[in-house]
Amino acid sequence: MRYLTIEQREALGAQIARRAEALRAEIAAALKQPGDSDTIHLANHLAEIDDDAVADLETTLEVAALERDLAELRALDAAGARLHGPDYGVCADCEEEIPFRRLTANPAATRCTACQASFELKQGAPRSGTI
Ligand SMILES: [Zn+2]
């Protein structure tokens, strides 16, 4: 049984598309050297780091930020693919319906709030995560 209406799914789909587009722009910008659109910024960093711990740290932070963006983009793409399927909006752990309000805040959510909290507790992940 599906609990989300077609209209709700389409609204979430539009939200997923908007967020994915913003992330793609963010990722593209992160990969570009300012002033030189053909240069891969991160690649330059990696070439410079040899003995420089500061550059190393910067690269680590940039890569971490980029990986977060890519992970969110992947989650959004997956959510977009599931959007009109029977599993979308259903908690992966307890199989209860994920509240529409939660999906509006995070269309890529695969768990209800309670299951996500206990999942993050088990993972030792910070509560302030995007999912
Ligand atoms: Zn649940």
Task: Walk me through what this model shows.
The protein is mainly α. The protein has one domain (6-123): Four Helix Bundle (Hemerythrin (Met), subunit A) (Up-down Bundle), CATH 1.20.120.910. The protein is built from five helices and two strands, in the order αββαααα. Strands 1-2 form a two-stranded antiparallel sheet. A hairpin with a 2-residue loop joins strand 1 and strand 2 (36-40). It is flat, with a radius of gyration of 18 Å. The model has no long low-confidence stretch (mean pLDDT 84). The chain binds zinc ion (ZN). Zinc ion binds at residues 91, 93-94, 96, 111-112, 114-115.
Uncertain stretches: none
C-alpha end-to-end distance? 25 Å
The overall number of domains is 1
Tally of helical runs: 5
User: What is the CATH fold-level name?
Assistant: Four Helix Bundle (Hemerythrin (Met), subunit A)
Q: Which ligands, by name, code or SMILES, are bound?
A: zinc ion
Q: Name the beta content range.
A: 5-15%
CATH architecture type: Up-down Bundle
CATH class category: Mainly Alpha
Q: Tally of extended strands? A: 2
What does the radius of gyration come to? 18 Å
> What's the order of the H and E elements?
HEEHHHH
- Averaging pLDDT over every residue, what do you get? 84
Sum up the overall morphology in one term: flat
CATH superfamily: DksA, coiled-coil domain
**Going across the major beta sheet, what is the strand order?**
1-2
Largest sheet: 2 strands, antiparallel
Instruction: Indicate the structural class.
Output: mainly alpha
Give helix % range.
55-70%
